């Protein structure tokens, strides 16, 4: 086939997938799991899980499209669940993903599935040990999670498997070296699946595909096509093992995974790109690409600083640009020796409206951060990104990255209001500082706040550990094999299986809290007579206290290179990171501070009352480590200098930062290639590789949207004109999605956070 024919097949296959409005495979798997739970009740849990996975591989209904170059799909592992791409999503009613039986509400009767079967399956699931254990954890802390002082969840995905040994040697040879019988049995599921697909391919006259399936993943791959086929089947089995909704499994450095196979047959860039297009389609599930936050990264350096960009890197970029699909996420590793050719290739992504934009990671800084966190030097080049922006070592790091979520702004609210919610007036926590007069309470607010953070962080960590222990009742022998766990299950709560292990904590409200402290200080210094009014003003959401709100809003804000505000933000980040890192997870390892807020700055802000920085109640918090939108208005240069003050060496779980960039600042560069080089010079280098910041660890993450609010409003008003394909890709946080698929609340959030005054050049 020609590359054009292969590309057309990929496009047709994507349109087939986007036409799917039902995702029922996971429900069928649940029925099989229920049957197997009884059939294999005599087996130990891990062995039972392995035998169940083999039954799923044998009995799951399979098909191969006439447009498919490869067999396999992850469709059966996902439901129509992810809230932020659901048009019915509402900030007011979102309650997280803590109920494992909520997924049964995401399927409707039809296609042979009755409401009685759905209800019965949900009742059965509720009676399971896992659901009961998880329910007990949430019941213990519901007073604090209800208004999001913190939140906890069981982490199913957010991992990066290492399939390289299986690709190279084949599953059969790999299994021979595995000692654990459960892991060995689970690996058989991949060969069972391949055999069934091979039979289908032969019956449909797809003889070449059948030949490939008869070889891989049973044996080692020799060509890029064989490697991709093997990889997709391994990925499918991994997802089936955790159906439904193993969100945010990620690929890792795909260019390094697949380049040896491309090079072995000397396949040219164009032909490799055509095959990679089918890999990208594989990651899109159903009508809204429901398998969210699966990250694929390219580029980067070796330990000695040598650039590792290769032909597969550019072939993957070509495939991404030509297809422009909502998933999977594209990330790019950069360093001081990144070749100009890579920046030139990236220019087309940043400066073509409606096209995906990659996340950017700074290898030079990331190596420093991970080394300080205990990662061995030899493993540093193998760091990749799980989910949105969490750095993990591929195949060796079980980081439980979204295990806990801490809301600093809500904690500040409780400290200022004697433990009562400004939203509901409920007494959420014990009274704090009840006997202190307002000026005294305000002057001691930092001491009160950090003591409260320590208290709630400890409660949060204990609850998060409860979620992890509950999840351990669902062993994952196949995934364990891909994570280099031979002796035990990687979810074992008593003995560490993966080389690295931790738990994540996503920290919200950094700038809101820091700016609030600065505003309180200024109020006490300049208008001490109004100190008595502040608490009452917050309780009334500044109604009747507009003059006081104006004063608070005028106080110095983080992001404008004002020393007092920047120093406060750095201090808040440092102290909170230390408190979080001091918490121990279920295996005694540190929690990893992660200042990222994947749209949760909007969700959690809804439960926070007015704050002393002048922010109104129920409005969003700041995004990640960024200033609160609208508060930084002095341009990208000063905002970048503010960002240099933050303690990136302590942000071992990652962080989030977004620049909304007006394309007019690059009008002097005529071609996409020239714009890519200009972007490297004007945006990347000043942030990542600035000599003025050489004494400190530099920022290591950024994502951008190069557009204007006016453009996005036009897209929403007339999508047929501005997005005739029905797809207009934008960054939402660490992932990109079809802007037209998003709920209205999230669409407006993206528009608001473009915040072009903070990034004007």
Principal-axis shape: globular
Report the strand count.
17
Let me know the largest β-sheet. Answer: 6 strands, mixed
Mean pLDDT: 95
Helix content: 40-55%
Distance between the termini: 48 Å
Number of helices: 29
Radius of gyration, in angstroms, nearest whole number = 26 Å
> From the helix content, strand content and strand pairing, which structural class follows?
alpha/beta
Which percent band covers the strand fraction? 5-15%
> Which regions are unreliable across 5 or more consecutive residues at pLDDT < 50?
none
Descriptive account of the structure:
Helix 8 runs antiparallel to helix 9 (207-215). By secondary structure, the protein is of the alpha/beta class. The radius of gyration is 26 Å and the shape is globular. Helix 13 links the parallel strand 3 and strand 4. It is built from 29 helices and 17 strands. 46% of the residues lie in helices and 9% in strands. Among the domains are: 83-144, no CATH class; 145-152 and 399-633, no CATH class. The strands form five sheets. The protein has a six-stranded mixed sheet. The protein has a five-stranded mixed sheet with strand order 1-9-11-12-13. Strands 6-7 form a two-stranded antiparallel ribbon.
């Amino acid at each position: 086939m020609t590359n054009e024919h292969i590309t057309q097949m990929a496009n047709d296959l994507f349109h087939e997938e986007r036409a799917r409005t039902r995702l029922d495979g996971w429900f069928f798997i649940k029925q099989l799991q229920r049957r197997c739970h009884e059939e294999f009740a005599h087996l130990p849990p891990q062995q039972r899980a392995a035998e169940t996975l083999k039954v799923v591989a044998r009995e799951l209904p399979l098909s191969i499209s006439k447009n498919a170059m490869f067999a396999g799909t992850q469709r059966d592992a996902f439901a129509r669940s992810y809230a932020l791409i659901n048009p019915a999503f509402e900030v007011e009613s979102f309650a997280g993903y803590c109920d494992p039986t909520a997924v049964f509400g995401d399927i409707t009767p039809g296609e042979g599935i009755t409401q009685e079967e759905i209800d019965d399956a949900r009742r059965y699931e509720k009676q399971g040990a896992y659901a009961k254990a998880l329910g007990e954890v949430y019941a213990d802390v519901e007073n604090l999670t209800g208004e999001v002082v913190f939140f906890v969840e069981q982490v199913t995905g957010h991992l990066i498997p290492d399939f390289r040994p299986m690709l190279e040697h084949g599953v059969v040879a790999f299994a021979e070296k595995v000692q654990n019988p459960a892991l060995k049995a689970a690996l058989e599921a991949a060969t069972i699946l391949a055999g069934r697909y091979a039979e289908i391919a032969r019956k449909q006259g797809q003889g070449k595909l059948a030949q490939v399936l008869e070889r891989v993943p049973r044996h080692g791959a020799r060509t890029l096509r064989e490697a991709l086929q093997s990889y997709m089947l391994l990925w499918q089995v991994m997802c089936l093992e955790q159906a439904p909704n193993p969100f945010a499994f990620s690929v890792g450095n795909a260019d390094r995974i697949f380049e040896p196979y491309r090079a072995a047959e000397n396949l040219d860039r164009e032909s490799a790109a055509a095959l990679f297009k089918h890999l990208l389609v594989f990651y899109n599930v159903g009508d809204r690409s429901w398998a969210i936050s699966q990250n694929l990264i390219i580029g980067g350096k070796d330990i000695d600083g040598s650039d590792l960009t290769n032909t597969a890197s550019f072939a993957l970029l070509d495939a991404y640009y030509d297809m422009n699909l909502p998933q999977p996420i594209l990330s790019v590793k950069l360093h001081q020796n990144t070749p100009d050719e890579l920046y030139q290739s990236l220019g087309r992504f940043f400066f073509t409206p409606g096209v995906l934009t990659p996340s950017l990671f700074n290898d030079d800084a990331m190596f420093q951060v991970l080394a300080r966190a205990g990662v061995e030097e030899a493993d540093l080049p193998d760091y990749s990104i799980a989910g949105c922006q969490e750095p993990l070592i591929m195949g060796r790091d079980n980081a439980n990255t979204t295990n806990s979520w801490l809301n600093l702004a809500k904690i500040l609210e409780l400290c200022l209001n004697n433990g009562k919610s400004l939203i509901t007036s409920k007494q959420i926590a014990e009274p704090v500082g009840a006997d202190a007069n307002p000026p005294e309470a305000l002057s001691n607010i930092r001491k009160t706040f950090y003591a409260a953070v320590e208290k709630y962080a400890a409660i949060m960590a204990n609850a998060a550990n409860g979620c992890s222990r509950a999840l351990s009742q669902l062993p994952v022998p196949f995934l364990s094999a891909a994570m280099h766990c031979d002796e035990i299950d990687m979810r074992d709560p008593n003995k560490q299986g993966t080389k690295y292990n931790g738990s994540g904590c996503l920290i919200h409200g950094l700038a809101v809290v820091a700016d609030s402290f600065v505003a309180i200080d200024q109020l006490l210094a300049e208008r001490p007579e109004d100190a008595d009014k502040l608490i009452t003003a917050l309780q009334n959401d500044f109604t009747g206290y507009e003059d006081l709100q104006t004063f608070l809003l005028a106080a110095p804000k983080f992001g404008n290179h004002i020393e007092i505000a920047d120093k406060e933000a750095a201090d808040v980040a440092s102290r909170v990171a230390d408190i979080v890192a001091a918490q121990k997870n279920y295996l005694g390892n540190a929690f990893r501070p992660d200042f990222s807020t994947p749209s949760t700055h909007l969700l959690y802000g809804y439960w926070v009352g007015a704050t002393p920085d002048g922010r109104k109640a129920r409005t969003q918090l700041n995004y990640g480590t960024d200033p609160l939108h609208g508060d930084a208005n002095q341009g990208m240069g000063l905002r970048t200098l503010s960002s240099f003050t933050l303690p990136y060496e302590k942000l071992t779980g990652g962080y989030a930062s977004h620049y909304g960039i007006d394309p007019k600042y690059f009008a002097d560069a005529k071609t996409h290639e020239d714009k890519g080089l200009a972007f490297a010079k004007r945006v990347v280098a000043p942030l990542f590789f600035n000599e003025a910041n050489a004494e400190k660890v530099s920022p290591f993450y950024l994502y951008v949207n190069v557009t204007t609010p006016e453009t996005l409003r036009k897209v929403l008003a007339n999508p047929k004109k501005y997005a005739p394909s029905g797809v207009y890709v934008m960054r939402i946080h660490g992932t990109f999605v079809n802007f037209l698929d998003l709920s209205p609340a999230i669409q407006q959030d993206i528009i608001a956070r473009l915040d072009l005054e903070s990034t004007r050049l």
